[in-house]
Amino acid sequence: MPDSKAARIITIVAHGKPGRLAPGQLEFRSPPPLSLYVHIPWCIRKCPYCDFNSHEARRQIPEADYIAALIADLESALPLIWGRKVSSIFFGGGTPSLFSGQSLDTLLTAIRTLVPLLPDAEVTLEANPGTVESEKFAAFRDAGINRLSLGIQSFNPAHLKALGRIHNGNDARRAIEIATRHFDNINLDLMYGLPEQTLAQAMDDVDAALAYAPTHLSCYQLTLEANTAFAAAPPALPDPDCCADMQDAIEARLAIAGFTHYETSAFAQTGRHCRHNVNYWTFGDYLGIGAGAHGKLTLHNQVLRQMRWKQPKQYLAKVAEATFIDNEFAVDSADLPFEFMMNALRLNQGFDVSLFEARTALPLVSIENELRQAEACGLIVRRPGHIAPTELGRHHLNRLLECFLTEKPGNTP
Ligand code: SF4
Q1: What spacing in Å lies between the alpha carbon of 218 and ligand 1's midpoint?
Q2: Cα–ligand 1 centroid distance for 9 (angstroms)
Q3: Is the same domain home to 236 and 151?
Q4: Is residue 168 pLDDT above 90, yes or no?
Q5: DSSP code, position 115
Q6: Which atom of ligand 1 is nearest to the CA of 1?
Q7: Are 333 and 324 in contact (CB under 8 A)?
Q8: Residue 412 domain-assigned?
Q9: C-alpha atoms less than 13 angstroms from C-alpha of 51 in its C-beta half-sphere
């Protein structure tokens, strides 16, 4: 589900090489805010563009066993987060809304018992607009979910079909209507640059979404990811100029509608940005539990990355053996600036220098050459104590990030 694109960034980072960090090399004075990510890996059907860790639910989902495994997984991680408060929880997938309200209630009750949640913690659930899930929205609210993220993608039946989605435009409208009865904080995921989509059709989707006055919109361009059905048999997509026009038109329309464009693909009404994702983008910490979940935890002298077992069956079996982690490594201190920038430069307003130093335990001067290069190329702008991407930098984020790679393309031995 595209609202998890933040998780994709994390995946790229977490597949990096194991670190060579010497203990004691870094010293973190205080840990950053902590979020909890819970991965639910099943979907009714695999969408042809999807490269997330999602699996078709061919048989009955082992819901009770999986909830028990998640609780055991969280218990096992407690020593790493002892004494720290959790500021947000995000149920992503897959399709978390396939689970019952009762299961989520059981899990959230266990989470509240095991970790201290901030009183105003944001608790998001990703949901799909299939009618079965929509009927559960009241139960989700009662369980403690206070933000719903709906994977609408489009209202256009032909485009939904081309995307392989199981819902149609009416399901999407009905799901939003039911959601607004139970939630006052709703994100709608939209995609543009869809097979044979015109600019006018992309804007029709945006207008249809705006009619429901959501607090947040995520607008993603469809991209062809490796190891997907679309990569194997690519559909006819609009040309890059047309996609760029769509992006410009969407940004302009949402600005008029009062939305702040605060991250590459994220638009929010005042005060309604996704706090969980902003924690990723400000290089905060997150514990990830569930099949294939990734985590980043700042310890006193290192940044630790963890990956859980990816396949749901394997995850359940390994948890039963009390073997929770598939891979774990300390991030090489030389890689921390790139990892920080890969997140923080997605934020249109940029970041304070003090944030870089707090999150990496490195002085900004350690990347002065890289900053100068990015500035000389017109990709960032520096003010006293603050760094932000320029419009050019935002539109060429990969080029900007290359400035901070320890092994730049073409320089790799
Ligand atoms: S609903 Fe489709 S896009 Fe979303 S996680 Fe499942 S397969 Fe992927």
Answers
A1: 15
A2: 17
A3: yes
A4: yes
A5: S
A6: 4
A7: no
A8: no
A9: 16
CA of residue 164 to ligand 1 center, whole Å: 10
Which residues lie with the beta carbon below 6 Å from any ligand 1 atom?
A: 1, 43, 46-47, 50, 52, 54, 93-95, 128, 151
DSSP string of 163-207?
TT-S--HHHHHHHHHHHHHH-S-EEEEEEES-TT--HHHHHHHHH
Confidence at residue 298, expressed as pLDDT on a 0 to 100 scale: 97
Q: Which of 46, 49, 91, 190 to mutate to test the pocket of ligand 1 (most atoms within 8 A of CB)?
A: 46
Q: Is the pLDDT of residue 22 over 80?
A: no
For ligand 1, atom 4, name the residue with the nearest CA. 1
Task: Assess whether the previous peptide bond of 94 is cis (omega < 30° from 0).
Answer: yes
Q: How far apart are CA 4 and CA 197, in angstroms?
A: 23
Shared domain for 244 and 386, answered yes or no, is no
Residue 326 in any domain: the answer is no
Domain that holds residue 86: 2-280
> Ligand 1 mean position to 374 CA, how many Å?
36
Question: Atom of ligand 1 at shortest distance to CA of 50?
Answer: 8
Cα 298 to ligand 1 centre (Å)? 30
CA 389 to ligand 1 center in whole angstroms? 31
Overall domain count for the chain? 2
The residue nearest atom 7 of ligand 1, judged by CA position, is 46
Mean pLDDT, residues 188-198: 98
The CATH code of the domain that includes 352 is: 1.10.10.10
Confidence of residue 134 (pLDDT cuts 50, 70, 90): confident
Q: What is the mean pLDDT of residues 257-279?
A: 98
What are 225-254's pLDDT values in tens digits? 999 999 999 999 999 999 999 999 999 999
d(CA 337, CA 357): 10
Q: pTM for this one? A: 0.93
Give tens-digit pLDDT for 93-125.
999 999 999 999 999 999 999 999 999 999 999
The count of C-alpha atoms lying within 13 angstroms of the C-alpha of 305, restricted to the half-sphere facing its C-beta, is 23
- Beta-carbon neighbour count of residue 330 at 10 Å? 19
Mutate to test the pocket of ligand 1, among 40, 50, 58 (most ligand atoms within 8 A of CB): 50
State in Å: Cα 248 to ligand 1 middle: 26
Residue 23: predicted pLDDT: 44
Q: Report the chain's mean pLDDT, rounded to a whole number.
A: 92
Would you say residue 410 lies in a domain? no
Band of the pLDDT at 284, cuts 50, 70, 90?
very high
Residue 252 lies in a domain: yes
Residue range 69-82, pLDDT digits in tens: 999 999 999 999 99
